[in-house]
């Protein structure tokens, strides 16, 4: 067991480094500010309890994301969450975007949120966090080829959903 001071310092360092990324990921998967904050708080609570089991500090971000994803899954075991209409969701930095950019972002966000978790999770890990296929494979506990297949299918499903008339919905040349 680590010395109490070292343990606290490590935990504070992890919280400072990764709280913003964890919140951003939580918002992507749940779409609700209050729930996202609760998920991050519960993630850090569970991380504190299990901090002695963290063997490699360089893998802390993936470890925390895994805890958050599992905590989000647990919310459905405990209760049925309140659903938020994505069209009515207000994001703090909206003032910086032009109306067409806001519409494009909301179209893309709604499309991603409608994907099955099997496809949504790898896509978010790649697009939001910038993880490589190897990192995604490690975090999801699947092979790299499975990650590449799921990313390909996620983009195809998203493309099909957004390009209903075959012309529109080419969001920022994602496709």
Describe this structure in words.
The protein is built from 7 helices and no strands. It is mainly α. Helix 5 crosses helix 7. The relative contact order is 0.09.
Which descriptors would you attach to this protein?
175 residues; mainly alpha
Chain-wise SSE layout:
Blueprint: H1 4-30, H2 33-50, H3 60-78, H4 99-114, H5 117-127, H6 133-140, H7 144-162
Helix pairs in contact: 1-2, 1-3, 2-3, 3-6, 4-7, 5-7, 6-7
Q: What order do the SSEs take from the amino end to the carboxyl end, as H and E? A: HHHHHHH
Tally of helical segments: 7
Helix percentage: 55-70%
Please report the distance between the alpha carbons of the first and last residues. Answer: 49 Å
What structural class do helix, strand and pairing data support?
mainly alpha
Strand content: under 5%
Q: Which oligomerization state do the chains in this entry correspond to? A: single chain
Largest sheet features: none
Concise structural overview:
It contains 7 helices and no strands. It has 175 residues and is mostly helical.
């Amino acid at each position: 067991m680590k010395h109490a001071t070292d343990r606290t310092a490590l935990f504070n360092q992890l919280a400072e480094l990764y709280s913003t990324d964890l919140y951003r990921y939580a918002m992507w998967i749940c779409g609700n500010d209050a729930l996202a904050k609760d998920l991050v708080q519960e993630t850090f609570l569970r991380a504190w309890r299990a901090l002695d089991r963290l063997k490699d500090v360089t893998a802390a971000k993936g470890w925390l994301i895994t805890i958050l994803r599992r905590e989000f899954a647990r919310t459905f075991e405990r209760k049925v969450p309140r659903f938020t209409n994505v069209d009515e969701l207000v994001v703090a930095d909206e003032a910086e975007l032009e109306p067409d950019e806001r519409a494009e972002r909301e179209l893309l966000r709604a499309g991603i949120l409608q994907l099955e978790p099997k496809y949504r999770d790898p896509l978010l890990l790649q697009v939001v966090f910038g993880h490589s296929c190897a990192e995604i494979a490690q975090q999801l506990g699947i092979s790299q080829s499975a990650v590449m297949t799921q990313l390909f299918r996620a983009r195809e499903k998203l493309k099909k959903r957004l390009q209903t008339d075959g012309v529109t919905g080419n969001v920022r040349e994602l496709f």
